[in-house]
Here is the input.
Amino acid sequence: MSVRPVCVITGASSGLGRGLARRLAREGYAVALLARRREPMEELAAEVAAAGGRAAVYVCDVTVRHEVLKAVEGARQDLGPVDLLVANAGISINTRVENFDAEAVERVIRTNFLGAVYAVEAVLPEMLGRRTGHLVAVSSLAGFGGLPLSAAYSASKAALTNFFESLRLDLRGTGVWVTVISPGFVKTPMTSHNRHPMPFLLDLDDAVERMVRGIRARKKSLVFPRRLGAVVWAARLLPRTWYDALASRIDRRKSPEAGGPGG
Ligand SMILES: NC(=O)c1ccc[n+]([C@@H]2O[C@H](COP(=O)([O-])OP(=O)(O)OC[C@H]3O[C@@H](n4cnc5c(N)ncnc54)[C@H](OP(=O)(O)O)[C@@H]3O)[C@@H](O)[C@H]2O)c1
Here is the structure.
């Protein structure tokens, strides 16, 4: 058993999850890496071990509830009780009004929203029992309002944000903390094929650093970059005609089908 605090990260094979796992391992966490692709996680685990840290790999599809429960149980057996959950796994599929495809919407909701719900189910009882723990959701500024071609993604992130916000209220006084992180655009494989404008695009390391600081400070909500966050927030208050004109400037049609809005 490890004496290090234990962190479970979903979507640890790539992008923000991978960066966060590497960074949290450096902070002293034993990290449980969860995603579908084993190889990149094995590479990361070896890298963490070589640097004197601890990481273990659990291949799992977050859309399958029993796989998530099994993976987290494996992490608990191997590393110890879970102190920190980072529910980060996510996909982005453009939603098109022509050839509208509810199955694609289901895939996005299952991954981005239900995947996080299953991870919470896997860690929460023990956290409540121990009266300590931290639940972190990697949501998105896209959850603050509808964006072109983004119906599924925006809806999944709005659900995720509100779900964790409700949990935060219900968990007051229990010793379990909740943080919702809403990044704007970050350079990761998810956004690498985007051709539409990505204002205030952040480097991965910069984003990871901000996220780790927010987690360490147990912030209730972390929105970055601030300037884009302010624009998005203000846009919520605009008359809808003005909002439509502004939001339509993000022309996702220039981006490939399964690219990603990200932010
Ligand atoms: N990049 C941005 O601009 C941005 C902005 C705001 C929010 N976000 C959010 O940040 C999170 C990470 O995104 P990213 O940009 O780092 O994207 P990414 O590089 O594409 O990483 C996505 C991760 O999610 C995992 N994943 C996807 N479907 C999964 C499934 N069914 N089961 C298990 N794991 C699954 C992937 O692993 P496998 O494919 O190996 O399963 C991968 O590790 C997402 O929730 C995204 O919505 C990103």
